[in-house]
Specification:
The chain is mainly α. Helices cover 32% and strands 4% of the residues. A two-stranded antiparallel sheet has the order 1-2. It is globular.
Length: 376
């Protein structure tokens, strides 16, 4: 019994040591900003808005078109297709004669997006949480409105960018059911506003949680939650240097890094990232089982391919001819012993996924349009 207790203490200390370097289990309850407390009425309204193509210019695409629960609230294609496109995920294709360009970046999952900005201790400020691959917007409330203004995502050719939010709000105000739902969620003399639109969508997105992965359960004390290979991979994840950027409960430092990822050949021009530096935000590693392909432009179809990329990058090799080796993030050179065939490391990455997330879809939306847009 004494020996068994000693082993248990040793295992606990080992887990704690990894947690100090890597991060801890995700919280069960996300924070909301002070000016947008989460309420059932906001969440219910936000869910309808998330699925309603009324928010798009041509009224044929919704938030859910590219963030569908079938694909982990991401998309199983490298680059998204917005307005005028038809189908879901890999089957999605542009309508004949469409002049709308392809979206230039991969559609990231909104699962656990409520925890964006988390530091190593799990602390974050939801009012300033970084969003998008280039971190151009802070807070989920502001992020929720950006696709409505984007030409290739939800605006199309219907109206100019500076009029987009006003046009969407006007459509919502013209709908009696939305007027009632906004009044119930927000009150006030003019509850249907762009600000409240962002608040409602973000309130719903904060309920999209997948925070009980094998890793989370393991870190909470369930020693059987991860396999021996996954535990071994967790140690490898730390020893090879992944934790230098993929740290904290969301496995991201929420910083910009120049990695030299190759451009997607489907794009007409090179994507030069944040402030034209070829820097992109460190992505979360949560729920990778459901969100392939990977990186900002979906250039890597498998986790092994991602590991293989970092094997090259750790040697100072850029795979993007627009990015010289000298411009690569110095942290890449601190990585060591990477191996594309590292099965244990990949198995650990799979242990960061939780498949018990909300997949429910509304039967209808107040506009009466097809739920989710033209995704059938």
């Amino acid at each position: 019994l004494v020996a068994a207790a000693a082993v248990a203490v040793f295992l606990y200390m080992g887990v704690a040591a990894v947690g100090q370097s890597m991060g801890s289990a995700l919280s069960q309850t996300p924070q909301a900003p002070n000016d947008n407390p989460t309420t059932p009425a906001k969440v219910a309204l936000g869910k309808l808005l998330f699925w309603d193509p009324l928010l798009s210019g041509p009224q044929d695409v919704a938030c859910a078109s590219c963030h569908h629960p079938q694909n982990g609230y991401a998309e199983d294609r490298d680059l998204s297709l917005g307005v005028t496109a038809i189908g879901l995920g890999k089957t999605r294709h542009q309508a004949p004669g469409s002049t709308i360009p392809i979206v230039k970046r991969n559609s990231p999952t909104v699962l656990n997006i409520a925890f964006n900005g988390s530091d190593l201790s799990g602390s974050y400020d939801p009012a300033t949480a970084p969003m998008f691959w280039d971190m151009r917007v802070k807070s989920l409330e502001k992020q929720a409105l950006e696709p409505l203004k984007a030409h290739e995502e939800m605006r199309g050719n219907t109206y100019p960018e500076d009029a987009a939010l006003a046009k969407v709000v006007a459509k919502l105000r013209a709908n009696a059911e939305y007027r009632r739902l906004f009044a119930g969620a927000f009150g006030g003399k003019q509850p249907v506003s762009a600000e409240n639109l962002g608040r409602a969508i973000s309130a719903f997105e904060r309920t999209l949680l997948a925070n009980n992965s094998p890793f989370d359960r393991y870190m909470r004390g369930d020693r059987s939650a991860m396999t021996e290979e996954q535990v071994s991979g967790m140690k490898r994840f730390e020893s090879v240097g992944c934790v230098k950027c993929h740290s904290g409960p969301m496995f991201s430092d929420y910083k910009l890094h120049v990695m030299g990822i190759p451009d997607n050949p489907a794009l007409p021009a090179s994507d030069d990232g944040a402030e034209k530096t070829y820097a992109f935000r460190t992505p979360t590693l949560r729920n990778l089982n459901f969100t392939a392909p990977y990186e900002h432009n979906g250039m890597f179809p498998t986790l092994s391919a991602v590991v293989g990329f970092y094997e090259d990058a750790s040697g100072g090799r850029s795979r993007n001819p627009k990015v010289s080796s000298e411009k690569l993030d110095p942290l890449l050179l601190e990585l060591k012993d990477f191996d594309e065939e590292d099965v244990d490391l990949v198995e650990f990455l799979r242990a960061l996924s939780d498949d018990k997330f909300d997949r429910t879809i509304p039967e209808r939306v107040p506009s009466g349009l097809p739920v989710g847009g033209k995704i059938q």
